[in-house]
Specification:
single chain; 128 residues; mainly alpha
């Protein structure tokens, strides 16, 4: 697997038109940097409470099906790194942890989805 390339021009590259440029990251790497997916996914990404997280995760799963991406409980405001790239100290918010668990459940389902895995593997084989 190639290392995630944060130096790409994520504001102008349309990865739907240029999938060969799409860097498959690990975990949350680049999760909300890649267009057009960022604009399509971000409006549905909500996690303030468990009910909101459940509705949001269901919407994101629907988006995933149409396409055939826990830090928010650990870091206030969802920021994992400071401006210099250093990892910020972790905190804990019980409500956000429960909300994050909703997304983790859906993520686990996606990681077991045979079609998703086949497409991911094909993309990595084709583009690195």
């Amino acid at each position: 697997m190639k290392k995630f390339d944060y130096e790409q021009d994520f504001k102008t590259i349309d990865f739907r038109q240029h999938p060969e440029l799409y860097p498959v990251g690990r975990g949350e790497q680049g999760v909300l940097m890649v267009e057009p997916y960022k604009s399509e996914i971000l409006p549905h990404w909500r996690f303030r409470t468990v009910p909101i997280a459940k509705a949001s995760a269901a919407e994101l799963m629907e988006l995933f099906e149409g396409y055939r991406a826990r830090r928010y409980s650990n870091n206030k405001g969802g920021r994992k790194y400071d401006a210099d790239g250093n990892e910020l100290p972790r905190g804990f918010d019980e409500e956000k942890a429960a909300a994050a668990a909703i997304f983790k459940g859906y993520w686990d389902r996606l990681r077991e989805d045979e079609d998703y895995l086949a497409r991911k593997q094909a993309h990595q084989k084709r583009y690195g």
